[in-house]
Amino acid sequence: MQFARYASVIIASTIKFVGGPLSGLALGLSWLETAACTVLGMMLSVVVITYAGAALQALLDRYRPRTPKRFSRRTRLAVRVWRRSGLLGIAFLTPLLLTPIGGTALAVSFRVNRVRLLLYMLGSALFWAVVQTLALYQLPHIRAMLGWH
Known about the structure:
By secondary structure, the chain is mostly helical. The chain contains seven helices and no strands.
């Protein structure tokens, strides 16, 4: 039963980082268990996208009905973040804004070193998992709403 709760937090944080802390709180896990599972979930996405990114891109290109616009609002923003702060900026923003999949795909598109990418994303995941989990666990109105005192 405990494994199912851990797996739920891991899966939630592979898609959207904040899903990990929210799931852990709802499932009654400790903040440390929640933070650890959240990091595992993000890093699962990062590893898969980092090492399977080229194959996934080729598959998308094959079945995409038309080529996407090269210069959109989103791509201009990505280039601006890359120019200002590089991989560190992308890694820092990934849990907050970009999602684990989107942030990793963006970093891979700039052809960064895989080991550096994994290390930066791990650092970001550790930092934001602790910050978000502790902040969420300390919000008294959420705990009262769930009936926990």
